């Protein structure tokens, strides 16, 4: 979210206190939140809470406000979040290894990070090698990002988020460039490794089968918020069609 995007932002943020992502408490709380980019309203009076342990799919047509909502949620708990943005945010000239390592950049000193850039440290090499293999990137560790396909780049972005090893995963279409089987397998991995998950996605089948709560957004407003098992495929199709 750009600085300018904060104009008009009216948030009631949850006060974190001692962080416990397993307790059944509200991790995210919006009370009549609004967000505008100049004259363009992206979120209009959004009120919602997301509790620790929830697995939430954000659905809605293109331009509905999903990315804007994720950005607002990210600002509420950023230090506890494994973040997988829509446009990956990878460094093209660096290797897969170094891009995944960036998930832990802030945990180490600048000299340590520079040393690892020049002479990869064994424990990171081992952990990242293992993670890359799980993501089907085992043979690509030394390749730079600009040598990868779109789907491979997306998997690096997931790898970087997983390497953060946080309790909350926020993702903006994190498996959109993958084939459905690979996408579902990676979603399962993401869900297994994070207590709380909020993911924007267009795949209705995955939204209903993998998540336990569906939040539907249109025109910057929450117009659907129900347990996934209380929504049918037909209803979700109608939500998109209307
Ligand atoms: N940087 C920006 N400057 C101006 N308007 C923006 C900007 N980013 C988003 N918007 C507008 O805000 C609204 C919500 O956009 P947002 O990216 O949150 O939608 P989205 O649901 O994530 O869409 P998509 O599924 O296409 O990614 C849209 O009308 C969009 O045009």
UniProtKB/TrEMBL annotation:
Residues 28-236 form the ABC transporter domain. InterPro entries: AAA+_ATPase, ABC_transporter-like_ATP-bd, ABC_transporter-like_CS, ABC_transpr_LolD-like, P-loop_NTPase. It comes from the Bacteria. Keywords: ATP-binding, Nucleotide-binding. GO terms for cellular component: plasma membrane. GO terms for molecular function: ATP binding; ATP hydrolysis activity; transmembrane transporter activity. Pfam families: ABC_tran. This is Phosphonate ABC transporter, ATP-binding protein.
């Amino acid at each position: 979210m750009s600085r300018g995007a904060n104009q008009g932002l009216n948030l009631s943020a949850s006060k974190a206190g001692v962080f416990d992502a397993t307790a059944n408490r509200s991790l995210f709380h919006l009370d009549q939140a609004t967000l505008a980019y100049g004259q363009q309203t992206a979120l209009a009076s959004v009120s919602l809470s997301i509790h620790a342990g929830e697995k939430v799919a954000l659905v809605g047509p293109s331009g509905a406000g999903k990315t804007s909502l994720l950005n607002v949620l990210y600002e509420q708990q950023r230090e506890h979040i494994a973040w997988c943005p829509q446009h990956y945010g990878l460094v093209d000239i660096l290797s897969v290894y170094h891009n995944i390592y960036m998930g832990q950049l802030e945990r180490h000193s600048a000299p340590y990070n520079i040393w690892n850039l020049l002479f990869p440290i064994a424990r990171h090499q081992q952990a990242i090698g293992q993670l890359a293999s799980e993501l089907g990137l085992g043979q690509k560790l030394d390749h730079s990002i600009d040598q990868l396909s779109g789907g491979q780049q997306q998997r690096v972005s997931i790898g970087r988020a997983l390497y953060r090893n946080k309790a909350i995963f926020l993702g903006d279409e994190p498996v959109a460039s993958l084939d459905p089987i690979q996408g579902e397998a990676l979603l399962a991995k993401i869900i297994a490794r994070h207590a709380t998950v909020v993911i924007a996605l267009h795949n209705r089948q995955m939204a209903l089968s993998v998540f336990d709560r569906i939040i539907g957004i249109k025109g910057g407003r929450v117009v659907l918020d129900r347990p996934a098992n209380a929504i049918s495929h037909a209803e979700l199709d109608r939500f998109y069609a209307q």
